[in-house]
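Meet my pick.
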Amino acid sequence: MSEFFVGIFYNASMLITLIFFFACITFSMENSRKTFHTIVAGLIIGIMGISLMLNPMPLMPGIFFDTRTILLAIAGFFYGWIPTLIASTITIIFRFIQGGSGAYVGSLTILIASLTGLIFRQKRYQQIMSKKNASLDFYLMGFTVHALMLCSMLLLPEDSIQILRRIAIPIIVLYPLVLTLISMIIKKLQGNARIRMELKDKEENFQLYVDASPYGIFVIDDQGSIIEYNRKMIELCGVDEEDLLGRDLVDLFHEDRQDLLSEHFTNTKLADAETNLTLEYLRHDGDKRIFKIKTIRIKGQKILGYLDDITAEESLRKEIEYLNYHDSLSGVFNRRFFEEECKRLDVTRKMPLGIVIGDVNGLKITNDGFGHLAGDDLIKKAADAMQLSLRKEDIIARWGGDEFIILLPQTGYKDTLHIIERIQKNISKVKTQTGILSISFGMAVKKEETQDFQDIFKKAEDSMYRQKMYDSPSAKNITLRTIINTLYESSPREEWHSQRVASYAKRLSKALGYDERYQKDVEAAGMLHDIGKIAVGTEILEKKEKLTSEDWHELRKHPEVGYRILQNVSTLGDITHTILSHHEWYDGSGYPQGLCGESIPELSRIISVADAYDAMISDRPYRLALSVETAKQELEKKMGTQFDPRIARVFLDEVLIEE
């Protein structure tokens, strides 16, 4: 019996040693090669079974036992059917190779142990592995295996009862205990290995999360050197990886920022809470970034922190801040900022306070004649010219559409006049699309804080309006002449047409019996009747193909555009309405208002006849001129529809008689 106990402990120790090694190795298998590893595991278990079978325990003369049943039951429970199938196949084959009268029974015990382990795995694995102490469960499995094994002994060809009497007690008691002991060891080892793997996975996942973070994460030691960092940190700092590890983080920043960062780290070490700092960072490639740095003290004097690149947010914030206080078109301050500055400057130490109001002349006529882009350009150039003339402490703001206001702290009457003169001098050098930049200025000076600011402002405004009465007409006339010249330069044909229409219209008005003053108005209307064509593209005015419906739509806008332009020139009087209506038809089918008969201004009816006749006898880009006779016939045909019959008859009988 002593040899039996020595043998069983020898087998048990070999099982523990081999399975300890095997448990650690198999649990650390990579999922990508799991099938390969399970096959290898089966081969190793099979080899272990052969090793145990080569070192049996003598139970009685001629009767030997080993611990293959323990091995295969454990294999079935812990490693599943593939390794167990391979191992049991190997051990069965080896048992038949060994031969002897017990070969069939030995093979049967291998199958019993393997199947019992697999059944327990299928039914109880999760419950058993989740238990803190599963020794009773393992003992039950061991008892089941070896109770069935003892039953299989009855199949031995001879002395089966005698053998059972000799081996029953040690096998039914010791074998389950050994299986329980080894299973508990493997469970513990696998539990530890699982924890290590989970920790490793968590560390790897955590590193992935850290590397995927949009923030640059870092840890610095008590000397300020970087000891840990993520990939975003490398990207943000714009340095190579080898230049970051062990580097003093402060040294990465420009010299004029290093003291601020050092002080921040000192405050972090002294504080128990998170500390923040916003700092400019200059990369090696010259790119300036704005970093928000958040840090907190960890483990002694180490510091955990992260960099957040807020360059885009800061840029947007500054842009919003700029737009809150600046006029988006001219770039000077806006009315909101001016009103706040008035409160700041309306104090004794800023007195005397000069107030200057400037109004850009000709903005409306520029918008109507050249378009709003030209008007915007006029405002920009006006603002630039005024800013160029001011001192650093002076404030200029856009007050309205064409008005600017200037605050001049500690500036008396004479100095304010001198600044206005300087502005006017700079304005005279500015070239615009209209050819001239004209601004009317008014001024007043607040000498004492007790004076009401609104009263002083009103004086400056009244002064500006008085000056505008003198400046505006001349500026508008110059702009009008510029519009006319621009039209004629882009299309000389329009100039010749306007001159001829003016001549026909003047002669027609004389034939109608009107005085010389009226004839001059008609002549002026003839010269200006197509001024609105400044808004029609040259590609339409000079188009050689027949005009499309879209082209005609654009062309028919010119009476309204001409009307808006000439409305700004007060000296033209009724001529503006003449221009608006010169394409109205006598029967009401004209444009733009659909007027008819006597409701159409007479000047317009005169211009309509002269304009139509000259258009017919002149070459156009898309057609040749009609003959004089054909044109006369068209005038005759359209009397009462397009033309006033009386005026058209006078034109035919008295004006064209000379042609």
